[in-house]
Amino acid sequence: MAYFNRGNARIYYEDKGAGEPVIAVAGLMENTAYWDLTGVADEISQHFRFVSMDMRGHGYTEAEGDAPGFDCETVGEDIIALADHLGLDRFHLLTHSTGGFAGVRYAMKDCSRFASLILTNTASFTSPVPGDRKSIDQFHDNFAALFENLDWETMIAGLKDRPGPFFRGIVESENADEMLATALSMAKRNNRFVIADFVRSFYKDPDPRIEGLRGITCPVLIVYGTKDDLFVESSRLMAKEIPGARLLEYADIGHMTAIEAPERLASDVLDFLRSPA
Fold first, then answer.
1. What is the pLDDT of residue 1?
2. CATH of the domain at 213
3. Which pTM value belongs to this model?
């Protein structure tokens, strides 16, 4: 198990394969297992060096103190810190969901380190919920309480009846039970009380920052599923505003593309990595 230290955080990562480096950062309630258990990491690492990272508050990464850094800016800086730790000057960045929030926001500021940026099922805002700060905070406080009140087994089992926007594609699949088992294995690597703290802290800004998107100059691939109710429009917006961005739509696939369509995702990512420009 590999770690590096940054400030008050001990950040976990996995490193496999050889060649041009790809750093992968997954989303809320996810971790390196999102890429590993689905086979995406194995497929890409046959052709590229694949380095996946657990965000602060997720998986095996630990952050101590009263300021754990559960915010978009800190997570973005953690990605660069991992590259520095590994001696990587430039790298491809593969992201999903919340990891993509951090990745695209960092790219708005400085994309010079990114050989390319791959944004799956994500957005350039950091709050999917519109409104003022009070209403946004209230929504995410209620969302966080779910993690505090339900253990992982109960939460995943309950998705069959109430999949919400993140699991609709999985629940409507003929392989729902198998996919939910993968999601449970992934979720159990997390401390659900820490996830709740992350939810209350991270999701604050509903602004997609269109001018920032227009300033991204690295090659960009955007992937979304038509059943990903929260991120269809945000994906299309990013594709419209980021110069030269490529957009791939997965019909009848939801939010969890690495779980729902791992072979297709790995193939499309590899095609893009071989010729991102």
1. 77
2. 3.40.50.1820
3. 0.97
